[in-house]
Amino acid sequence: MPVTGWDHVSFPAGDPEAILDFYKRLGFATIHEEEFRSGKYPVFAIAIGENAKLNFHGPAFWQDPNFDARGPTALPGCGDFCFVFDGTIEEAVELIEKAGAKVAYGPFDQPGGADRGRRLGTSVYTRDPDGNLVEFMTYPATGRHPVWGSVPGGE
Question: Per the CB 3.0–4.6 Å rule, which of 68, 69, 82, 139 could disulfide with 135?
């Protein structure tokens, strides 16, 4: 297959200022923030590693009836993002809490995307200001937490 990865994914932002602040507190670098703030560009993004980004469409853009290059039912809070975290699951929990957010689910072990979905990792979840689900996954699985699916309310 000639597809080797993903470049970007886009989501509507209900509260761009809160979204920017939240992801910066988690340590993400921003892309096009100045252009977005100055009104020169309708999108801002957070960098995901060296070669990918998560775009957020500002309200003026995604609410424009003439803008239809998006998911027709996408609204703020529709995202479910999983980021590979280069650290321990305890460090991921600490990062979430230091950013002023709360752990929504986990930590628990579950299959991630590594090894074509066959590798277990350990995940912890929070929510961003728009309600998007934000997951941090560490590899390998710790083996100290229940496996996904066996946790009441687990995602």
Answer: 82
* DSSP assignment letter at 147: B
Distance CA 30, CA 10 (A): 14
What local confidence, expressed as pLDDT, does residue 151 receive? 46
Find, among 66, 56, 81, 93, the residue nearest to 134 by Cα: 81
CA distance linking residue 108 with residue 82, whole number of Å: 14
The two structure tokens encoding residue 67:
């803008």
**Of 106, 148, 94, 104, the residue nearest 127 (C-alpha):** 104
Do β-strands 133-138 and 43-48 pair in parallel, antiparallel, or remain unpaired?
unpaired
Residue-wise pLDDT for 23-35, tens only, equals 999 999 999 999 9
Both tokens assigned to 14: 């209900």
Alpha carbon of 144 to those of 19, 53, 90, 128: distances in Å? 32, 32, 12, 26
The pLDDT score that the predictor gives to residue 131 is 97
| Residues 71, 68: Cα–Cα separation, whole Å | 8
Q: What is the pLDDT of residue 152?
A: 47
Low-confidence ranges of the chain (pLDDT < 70): 147-155
